[in-house]
Amino acid sequence: MSLWQLLFSFQGRIARTKFLISIILVNVLLAALELALHKIFSVEIDDSLFWLTVSMINAMFAAFIWAALGVKRLHDRNKSGWWILAIQVVPSLILYPAIEVAQMGGPLATIGTIVATISIVVLLWSWIELVHLRGTRGENRFGPDPLAPTSSTPVSAEPGLA
């Protein structure tokens, strides 16, 4: 699998280790990119709207890559990639507003707390699902096992060559 396919494709399967290393490296590289841009342009551009825009583009880029990696992990678990919406996207989008509602107090505070708690539980489960649970052994409907040996050369059975 090429680097392009790994980061931008929603096809295929990846193992847990490759998923985790990819997530860490993407986070580090995008944080370094944003820091470098800030270092380069901070002297000339002191516009918070500019930096908000840069941060939003960076976050959307990261979210796309995370989704592509997460879909491939779900495929490895023999699950549809659409589950990424239920276990990552929706809980992430509603968590912050739910926390805000919970902190406002009043009659909606309980609902906000419940929604925030459910979002956190779902996000924690997604972490378990994507990082801790092994993928399907052998080939599944999304492709070959990423942990299966890739060597297609037969092992010699002749004495002395083993």
Give an overview of the whole structure.
- With 162 residues, this protein is mainly α.
- The protein has one domain (8-132).
- It has 5 helices and no strands.
- It has helices at 3-8, 16-41, 48-76, 83-104, 109-132.
- α3 (48-76) packs across α4 (83-104).
- The radius of gyration is 21 Å and the shape is flat.
Radius of gyration: 21 Å
Task: Quote the beta fraction.
Answer: under 5%
Mean pLDDT: 88
Main sheet, how many strands, which sense, barrel?
A: none
- What count of structural domains? 1
How far the N terminus sits from the C terminus, by CA atoms, comes to 30 Å
Described by the principal axes of the CA atoms, the overall outline is flat
Class inferred from helices and paired strands:
mainly alpha
Outline the low-pLDDT stretches. Answer: none
User: Helix segment count?
Assistant: 5
Helix content: 55-70%
What pattern of helices and strands is seen along the backbone?
Answer: HHHHH
Number of β-strand runs? 0
Could you give the topology of this structure?
Elements: H1 3-8, H2 16-41, H3 48-76, H4 83-104, H5 109-132
Helix pairs in contact: 2-3, 3-4, 4-5
Transmembrane segments: 20-37, 49-69, 81-99, 105-128
Keywords: Membrane, Transmembrane, Transmembrane helix
Region (Disordered): 142-162
List keywords for this structure.
162 residues; flat; mainly alpha; 5 helices
